[in-house]
Each structure stands twice: as structure tokens, then as C-alpha cells.
Amino acid sequence: MSRIELDSVTKRFGDGTIAVSSLDLAVGDGELLVLVGPSGCGKTTALRMVAGLEEVTSGTIRIDGQVVNDLEPRHRDIAMVFQSYALYPHLSVFDNMAFSLKYRKINRGEIRRRVLEAARVLELEPYLLRKPRQLSGGQRQRVAMGRAIVRQPRAFLMDEPLSNLDAKLRVQMRAEIGQLQRSLGITTIYVTHDQTEAMTLGTKVAVISGGLLQQLASPAELYRRPANLFVAGFIGSPPMNLIDATLELGGATALSDAVPGTGPVVVFGPHQLPVPPSVLDEHPGLENYLGGEIVLGIRPEHLSDATLAPSADAGSVIELPIRLREELGSEVHVHGEIGTIAHTEAGAADDVRSLATLIGKMDPRTKVAVGDTAQLTVDCDQLHFFDPVTGASIRN
């Protein structure tokens, strides 16, 4: 087992493009860390630097405390699983899995033992004599993983291993990879652009954008306390509603005087919502935004049909014209028109106006239909606030 550390790792290509900038990561022994972000964000480049397939421009990579910047890939004792299965088409499943062991001149008895054990774990025993063309996509991916497992490496590096599979098989393989990693206890770095994969697989998740680490946290922490607007808009499906708003004092004279019914309110378009004391406690910096612009975050699942919960606080109910209804069976997504929101750009003489939409994830019993003006209840205890200039979350 091993620990992998990246200390201020940067990759700059010959044309000056910076793919990864001052990346700091630590992957504990037996941990599964997921690197997630949009295409071109630098996550695969970071993985390839750990593998030794890309040179590090600056910074340090350590495996078990040993600096490996100048160590060849074959001497790092790590195994990669790629997006493409990279199987030898003329070799059987057994020989594909055994190939690296034969190259390292492991004795035949040990090779057979390791391959049969990996095949048992991956449920590949009936297919050991088949060629890759006789296998399904999921079976080929298992063979690729088996080839990595038999090496008994210090760490696994997985680069979008499920992206070539259909949706149903991807869900199945995702569960199998998670279970396999936990049972083997091998340190793993997993790269994906799919936030669902990231949230369900990772012990920790590193969100990357533009070569920069945006946040490193547990899946639950990323969801509950996103560090900035990028993370808030990237994690969650549908993503968090992010709305230009203003923070006003309401019935209190200061945030410290806020009590239910008199505290500050957040105003967007023709709507306003109370900011509960629990949210103020978690966002003490809101004092600095009174009377000014702020970005309000509301997750779709924190909106509900007010008619299904008539006891809801009237102050947390907003009325929106519904422009779209999406049926998903177990839930319904509704798109409501907030209205025209005015905000002033720095240095601009006139207001910039935009028509904003709010997405709600509803109980399938809702009768809300396109064309309705629906009453939606907002769970105000779950409000998020961000700085409109820096995009940073306003929290403790």
C-alpha cells in the first residue's frame, strides 16, 4: 500500500499552456481519491504526471515519501486502467492478464495463481480462454482491471475507465469498482468528468477547473458546503440555482438583532426570502453584504410544491410562472421564471438585465403544470451565499 503526495505540482506545455497549476493533493494509504472536472481541466494531465507519462514542470510528487519526479513509469510500481481497454486482440483473457507478469519473469505457478485469483474476484473465470472480441464492453473493462490487479501494485490510477460503457453498465461497473477497491485496500486515484461517479466512488473528491484545485473534500462536504460558485454549479443534478440578489436588513437594525420575522431578507426580482438565524450563524460574513449584491444559491431539491405542504411558513413561499415540466418518474423537474433581475456591472452606467430561471426537483405527486403560476416553498435553512466578485462561499 502507499501514500501519494503532490506538492505544488505544475505542468506547463511548450506553447506556454498551463494544464495544471500548483496542485496540492495527499492520497492516504488505501484511500480512493477522485479527480473530477470538465473536459480539459487538467485532471488527466495530473494523473499522467503521477504515472510518469508526463514530465513535471515544477513541484514534487512523492510515493511513500520517495520523490518520483525523475523515476521512469515502470519503476514507480503503479498500475493504470485507461479509458480504452488496451487489450491485445490476439491474446486470450488469461494471457492478457498475465502479460505484465511474464514480462517481469514471474514464475509460471505464481502467474497462474494471481490470474486465477483476480479472475475469481472479477467473475471472469468462464472467459479466460476467450479473445477480447468475444467479450462485452463490461467484461473487457474487467479484464483491463484484472491485468492491473495481478501486478499487485502500490497504487491504481484510473483514467475515465467507464466512459465507453452504456449508462446501465456504467452504474453496475461503478459499484463493482468501489467494492473491489475497498476489498483490496489499494490506494487509488480515479479521474472522471461525471460528478455522479465522483460522488458515489470517492472517499475524497478533488474538483478541478482550469488547472486549479477548486475544493478537496468528502462528497457530503462538497454538496453541503461548496467552496465557490464553480463547485456549487458543478456538484448536484440538476445543479444549484445561482441567482443575482441583494441582501437587505428587513425588520432588524443589525444582523446581531435578527430573530425570526425581523431578520435580514435576500431579494431577487419581485421575490424575497428570510435568512434564518441558523444560516446567519454559518455565514457571519453576511454583515459585509448588507444593502449590496450577493449571489444566492438554492438547490433544486430544496424547492417543493407549497400545495403539498400547506403548513409551510408563508415567508418562504414564492410564486413563479412555470415554463417547463420534466417527468422523470421518481421526481419532476419544474422550471420557473423568476422575473427580470437588475444588477450593475462594475464600471457600467446602466443596469444589465437578465431573465432568470429557477429549477425545482419536485415530488412526483405535484400537479404543477406549464403555464401555471405555482407556489413553491423554499427550505430557507439550506440557503447558500457567495461573493459576486470572487465567487467564494461566504461561510465561517
Q: Would you mind describing this structure in some detail?
A:
It is a single chain. It contains 9 helices and 20 strands. It has a 6-stranded mixed sheet, with helices on both faces. A 5-stranded antiparallel sheet has the order 13-12-11-14-20. The chain has a 5-stranded antiparallel sheet with strand order 15-19-16-17-18, with no helix packed on it. It has helices at residues 43-51, 93-103, 108-121, 137-149, 167-184, 195-201, 219-224, 229-234, 277-282, and strands at 4-12, 18-27, 32-36, 58-63, 66-67, 78-81, 155-159, 187-192, 204-209, 212-217, 241-248, 265-268, 271-274, 293-298, 303-305, 317-327, 332-344, 351-362, 373-378, 384-386. Mean pLDDT is 88; it is low at 342-354. With 396 residues, the chain is an alpha+beta fold.
Uncertain spans, ≥5 residues at pLDDT below 50? 342-354
End-to-end Cα distance: 36 Å
Q: Mean pLDDT score, rounded? A: 88
Percent of residues in beta strands? 25-35%
Find the structural class using helix and strand composition: alpha+beta
The percent of residues in helical segments reads: 10-25%
Order of helices and strands: EEEHEEEHHHEHEHEEHHEEEHEEEEEEE
Main sheet: which strands, in order across? Answer: 6-7-8-3-9-10
Main beta sheet: 6 strands, mixed
Radius of gyration: 26 Å
Number of strands: 20
Shape: elongated
The count of helical stretches stands at 9
